[in-house]
């Protein structure tokens, strides 16, 4: 039980730390909004078959387009399907890695207790 006048155990030093934490959190929130806008504009490419198939997604994995070389069409539907799947996976993996890296940059130096 706390003594009289001690409230919840927050001294002035703790209040200052709390205010700084809120300030940092607000900066991260603003940075996250900017990052989301940047990710939407990015074009990240995955490819397969030595460039026969290219899949382009945004930085937040939104599909943008697929480019298929005329040479890939002669490979048959099954091979073409595999080439598209491999290119999609590569684009997705690059996109998620980019997002993760950018979020780590955004939150670096932020000391949140319990995280």
Tags for this entry?
rod-shaped, alpha+beta, 3-stranded antiparallel beta sheet, 115 residues
Structural class: alpha+beta
Rg calc = 24 Å
* Sequence stretches where pLDDT stays below 50 over 5 or more residues: none
What is the general shape?
rod-shaped
What's the average pLDDT? Answer: 85
Query: What's the total helix number?
Result: 3
Helix percent reads 55-70%
What does the main sheet amount to?
3 strands, antiparallel
What is the count of β-strands? Answer: 3
Sequence of strands across the biggest β-sheet: 1-2-3
Descriptive overview:
The chain is α+β, with helices and mostly antiparallel strands and 115 residues long. 57% of the residues lie in helices and 14% in strands. The protein is built from three helices and three strands. A three-stranded antiparallel beta sheet has the order 1-2-3. The longest helix is centred in the C-terminal third of the chain and has 31 residues, at 77-107. The mean pLDDT is 85.
């Amino acid at each position: 039980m706390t003594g009289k006048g001690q409230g919840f155990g927050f001294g002035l030093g703790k209040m200052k730390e709390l205010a700084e934490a809120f300030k940092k959190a607000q900066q991260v929130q603003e940075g996250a909004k900017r990052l989301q806008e940047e990710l939407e504009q990015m074009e990240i490419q995955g490819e397969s078959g030595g460039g026969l198939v290219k899949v382009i997604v945004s930085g937040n994995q939104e599909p943008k387009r697929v480019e298929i070389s005329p040479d890939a069409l002669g490979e048959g539907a099954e091979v073409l399907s595999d080439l598209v799947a491999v290119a999609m996976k590569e684009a997705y993996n690059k996109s998620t890695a980019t997002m993760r890296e950018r979020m780590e940059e955004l939150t670096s130096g932020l000391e949140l207790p319990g995280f």
